Amino acid sequence: MGGETRFDVEAIRRDFPIFEQTMRGKPLVFLDSAASAQKPSAVIDRIADFYRNEYASIHRGVYQLSEVATFEFEKARGKVARFINAANPREIVITRNATESINLVAQTWGRRHLSTGDEILITGMEHHANIVPWQMLCQETGAQLRVVPLLDDGSLEPGAFERMLGERTKLAAICHVSNALGTVNPVKEMIAAAHAQGVPVLVDGAQAAPHMAVDVQDLDADFYAISAHKVFGPSGIGILYGKLALLEAMPPYQGGGSMIHTVSFEKTTYAEVPARFEAGTPDIAGLIGFGVAVDYLAHIGMDAIEAWEKELLAYANERLAEIPQVRLIGTAPGKASVLSFVIEGAHPHDIGSILDQDGIAIRAGHHCAQPVMERYGIPATARASLAFYNTKEDIDVLVRGIHRVLEFFG
Ligand code: PLP
After folding, report:
1. Mean pLDDT of 379-401
2. pLDDT single digits (tens) 19-73
3. Can 175 be counted among the known catalytic residues?
4. For 325, which DSSP code?
5. For a 10 Å CB count at each end of the chain, is N or C smaller?
6. CA of 129 to the centre of ligand 1 (A)
7. 127 in ligand 1 pocket by Cβ < 6 Å?
8. What does the pLDDT look like over 289-344, one tens digit per residue?
9. Residue boundaries of the structural domains of the chain
10. Is the CB of residue 114 less than 8 Å from the CB of residue 173?
């Protein structure tokens, strides 16, 4: 991806009011979008507007305001369905975040289908959100977790996933993009391989949705989990995509209001999908904000976003390669715009604190992926993650900041 693209990043940055801020007296250089992304005015304003003018409880109101709020909420569900090309908005279950989406599948589908001796196949690059719910399920059911190993560059060992799919495998749960390494997994091929053995696949799409067009039908994913806050929407809201037939065969997740059809002290019957999985009052404004965020992304175009981020990543790789003390963790071909790195003799937290003095926000730690850190024999990394609102200048500032780190520790 050598050539310059005509991506008007300056116009895009004007959509994000946070970039009017200075940090420590310097312009904010925000390189932590993999943790949580910034929000465009369209999202912020729509949420405020909804609370000002349209807010009411949804689904059960018999008055106009409630009808408006319900309409807007369900319209947003439809927008999110279109964003990932789901065949039907009923396949979109509203959750709090990707973590809850994965727990929902573990606790409903998983409890129903797993027993002693069964296996769940994950990869060695999973976020804790795609490890711990399965471990808990294994403890409850006597099933076992199996883990596809990683190569040194952060990609999956070739052929290992296919080899490890066996008669006992009941589910594969794999990330689309790794938050700690940036690796983009060949999920479409992995899903096809799993399906050839009759194994359904949950994809943790938390880090893919902000960077590339996701088409759940083309992928043939059985479940796909997303958090709104990583796709420039509000925090506290996410979705689980599930194929309708799978969702319809699943028992409820939490009990309470909204998820029932009828309740008596003797017997309760449950609502249709997706309401069956949506107990209690949801974050109504949150979903509406999520809908605006995906509209905003669609307006820019996910292909344009992906191309710009590739250009930024190539530039960042080039600039970081000028600093021999920087060792990148995760260099898989075709990786996404996550730059995890270590510097001999400098703890990632110290790197983060020194960069912060220059207004640069990066992440330091294990990134909720402790097994990844263990795989590479390091306690933590510094991680700069890019989004489409970042510029080459941001990378230049980062590189200058790293030189300051080296002076400090040199
Ligand atoms: N999966 C991946 C790959 C992530 O990067 C994250 C968050 O960093 C999650 C899952 C969990 O997302 P959330 O905390 O929004 O549930």
Report:
1. 97
2. 999 999 999 999 999 999 999 999 999 999 999 999 999 998 899 999 999 999 9
3. no
4. T
5. C
6. 6
7. yes
8. 999 999 999 999 999 999 999 999 999 999 999 999 999 999 999 999 999 999 99
9. 9-40+301-409, 44-299
10. no
> Which of 188-201 are b and which e, b meaning 16 or more Cβ less than 10 Å from the residue's Cβ?
eebbebbeeeebbb
Q: Is 364 in the pocket of ligand 1 (CB under 6 A)?
A: no
The answer to whether 213 and 66 have CB atoms below 8 angstroms apart is no
Q: What is the CATH number of domain 9-40+301-409?
A: 3.90.1150.10
| Side chain identity at residue 307, one-letter code | A
CB 179 within 8 A of CB 369: yes
In this prediction, residue 4 carries a pLDDT of: 54
Q: Do domains 9-40+301-409 and 44-299 have the same CATH topology?
A: no
CA distance 352 to 362: 6
pLDDT tens digits, one per residue of 100-140: 999 999 999 999 999 999 999 999 999 999 999 999 999 99
Alpha helices in 249-367 (DSSP H): 284-300, 302-321, 348-356
User: 7 C-alpha to center of ligand 1: Å?
Assistant: 28
For 317-331, the pLDDT digits (tens) are: 999 999 999 999 999
Ligand 1 centroid – CA 206 distance (Å): 5
Amino acid type, 111: R
Indicate whether residue 380 lines ligand 1 (CB < 6 A).
Answer: no
What's the pLDDT tens digit per position in 140-168? Answer: 999 999 999 999 999 999 999 999 999 99
The answer to whether domain 44-299 has CATH 3.40.640.10 is yes
Distance 97 CA to ligand 1 centre (A): 8
Yes or no: say if 7 and 249 are a contact pair by the CB < 8 Å rule. no
Selection from 320, 376, 324, 282 nearest residue 70 by Cα = 282
Contact predicate 206/179, CB 8 Å: yes
- Answer for the pair 316, 166: CB distance below 8 angstroms, yes or no: no
pLDDT in tens, 229-275: 999 999 999 999 999 999 999 999 999 999 999 999 999 999 999 99
Cβ of 227 below 6 Å from ligand 1: yes
CA distance 95 to 347: 36
